[in-house]
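Quick one: structure tokens for this chain, please?
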Amino acid sequence: MKITTTVGSLVLALAAPFAADAAFIYGIDDSNILWEINPQAKTNRPLLPTGLTTQSNAFAFDTARGHMFFLNRGGATNATNTNNMYQWNSNTNAFNKIADGSALGIAGITVPANAAYYNNAYWFFKERTSDLLKVSLGYSGPVPEVTNVETFTPALSLPAGSQNAFGDIAIDPTTGTLYAYIAQVSGGDFYSLDLSGGTVGGFNLIKAGGSAIGLQISFDETFTTLYGHNYNDGKWYEVDTATGALTDLDFASLVGNDANGIPRGLRDVGGSALAQVPEPGSSLVLGLLSLVGCAAAARRMKA
């Protein structure tokens, strides 16, 4: 694997996509490695070691453009967290920091543990608050740029004692519905909000917590199936968006270890694609095979 560093970007040589299959879901682990998961075929595949050292979270995937976004805390304590925003373009293989956390108004706090991409914007809640941030992105150049940051404060009628700490969010762009799954230790509730009218409202508590487990959540590539992933044991589920009921997929992704050396799942997931992103290193192999084939053909023509 060849990695070339330039100012503001990290470029990784990767190959052409494979043929389409079931949902390929993307996320990041405790070692800051980007992963591709196929919960139907029950496969895990590492994609990119980002080289970052502190914890990352709030992962979201722009399915149309193939862009992956996330936040990296950058500090040893909440007070020193920078919470900068990063992006990997799976088409050009460029890895960039696109915004400082201070520009988003989130430096010096707990790194948000939820995010989703919707309508040319990166959305996330500040932990244990009802502040939902919409980070609008512009695409005039090769690297997305933050054009506006807007905060919504929807009324969340959560059960007594429940806190809006995550967990994860996922947004269905066909309906403009945001689904939120709160972490188990903060209530484990599953609810939805309506984003379709340009504002945020329509709170609907789909399932109260209690015995529920905390999940990272992501839709499939057609936005018809909501998948859930448990960080603690790596297990995958299908989530019924109408009732919150879980279907165990009998598959676990224990892709790395936490700070205590305990095997864990993905720190966060968000978004999926119809086809796999490029396989590291195989483009070079394909290029060499092409050159060999051309040389052989030339020799046959001369003969």
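The longest helix spans residues 282-302.
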